[in-house]
Amino acid sequence: MGSVSAKKGVIVLVPYCLQGHMTPMLQLASILHSKGFSIIVAHTKFSSPNPSDHPEFIFHALPDKLNGFDTSFMNLLNVMEAINSNCGGPLVDYLVEIMKDKGQVISCIIHDAIMYFAEAVASQLNLPSMVLRTSNVAFMESHRDILRLHSENRFPLPDSELENPVPGLDPLRFKDLPVSVSSRIHDKIIEFFESYMNIRSNAAIIWNTTQVLEKYALNKLHHHYKVPSFAVGPFHKMVPASSSTTSYINEDRGCIEWLDKQAPNSVLYMSLGSLSTIDEKELEETAWGLANSDQPFLWVIRPSSVNGSGWIEHLPEGFQEMVGDRGLIVKWAPQKEVLAHPAVGGFWSHCGWNSTLESICEAVPMICRPCFSDQIVNSRYITHVWKVGLELEQPSDRRVVEKTIRRLMVADSEGKEMRQRMLDLKTQIESSVQKGGSSYNSLNDLVNIVLIPLP
Ligand code: UDP
User: Fold this and answer.
1) Measured in angstroms, how far is the CA atom of residue 353 from the centroid of ligand 1?
2) Measured in angstroms, how far is the CA atom of residue 41 from the centroid of ligand 1?
3) Of all protein residues, whose CA lies closest to atom 17 belonging to ligand 1?
4) Cβ 289 under 6 angstroms from ligand 1
5) What is the spatial distance between Cα 33 and Cα 20, in angstroms, rounded to a whole number?
6) Which residues pair with 227 in a beta bridge?
7) Which residue's CA is the nearest one to ligand 1's atom 7?
8) Tens digits of residue pLDDT in 440-453
9) What average pLDDT does the chain have?
10) pLDDT band at 2 (very low <50, low <70, confident <90, very high)
11) Does any ligand 1 atom lie closer than 6 A to the CB of residue 20?
12) Contact 38, 6 (CB under 8 A)
């Protein structure tokens, strides 16, 4: 174990190991480091970040006993449960070692909401703690409603109710809630939600969101949780420019050279993030719709993201010959750079929260193809609250795909209006992270509260 020299104090960050959670936690680490704090990242051994990408932090791997465990996506709930059961003891031992043996003062533990064991550790050691929520406020609100509906024995909901709006959660319909509401919800899921939503009264919440997008939801949140909450996002616009990559996968930088040769706003960038998968039928319909749209595209297809495939062997025969140089397929792209590239005019996305923020910050309108969980909530907000994207009807055949791409990319009035709304949001977000803006001020409040801990 290395040692840190405490400047303003040491902050121990406890990230959850999926890409969409690790990225914002490491970005928050860079932000707090730039404010003078020393940073320790206490992470699971499983799917650990690369310490050499961040030599300015200390990394400590917590034994998680996941070796030999089924860590597939289908077993995610059990993985999260195992991490929460197995990592508490090792975190206590590690923190005691830092404080007693090395005499370091820990200012605060900041943990991902999924890593709720860290809050119990903070309580046990009498340390201040805060929870980082890597999704948006609307998603957390939807969980509160799921728990309420469960306590009222409303699940499973009849099909006739699915299209109805959820009272108080406008514009979400019951079918947009991030669980399968047509069946009975497993007790394990409810137990997980309860732990994940529980926040001790002397903690605080940090959000990778902004007042620009979620003012109403943030205000509402304050009525339910009487703890301080800091909307400091979008983190990637708050991090110092020199911060290194947070990707687990190697980025194919060749796509930037390819983009350099394309006309402004002409390219549709397509990615379903780090976890979502599609089946062969959807791949085929998407490919032909794309080919028929005549639009240039940059398509991220992760190995094994098309049910069990090695990579692109399930693309339909003749597709690549038909599109030729008009399209480029890569395994993983430098997404933030891609979205900021002048050639990119649209983003076909699964609507993960990081991707949503990254798209809005570059004013790139979206085609929403959510797969599960917060993606469904985010998609509804993109299309019905911020009105900066189109929902892809499901199931979508090649004609729907072609039509939706044209609606977004060809600058008729609908596409133009969405682009303009995106530009307005981008401008407002740029102001919010500048001196005097809401995220800028919220970060200063957060730093002050870490320096003078909550009672
Ligand atoms: N990402 C990337 N390259 C890609 C695809 C995704 O760097 O080819 C990054 C993207 O910029 C985002 C993260 O992976 O920061 C995905 O997070 P998100 O919350 O959007 O979705 P998740 O992967 O959690 O479903």
Assistant:
1) 9
2) 20
3) 20
4) no
5) 21
6) none
7) 335
8) 999 999 999 998 76
9) 93
10) very low
11) yes
12) yes
Residue type, 103: G
Q: For residue 397, what are its two tokens?
A: 């055949």
Q: What are the pLDDT digits (tens) for 235-293?
A: 999 998 766 778 888 999 999 999 999 999 999 999 999 999 999 999 999 999 999 99
244 residue type, one letter: S
Residue in 259, 246, 423 with CA at minimum distance from that of residue 341 = 259
| Ligand 1 pocket residue status of 355, Cβ below 6 Å | yes
- Asked whether 335 and 100 are in contact (CB, 8 A), the reply is no
When pLDDT is averaged across residues 187-201 and rounded to a whole number, the result is: 86
- 352 is written with which tokens? 């993960």
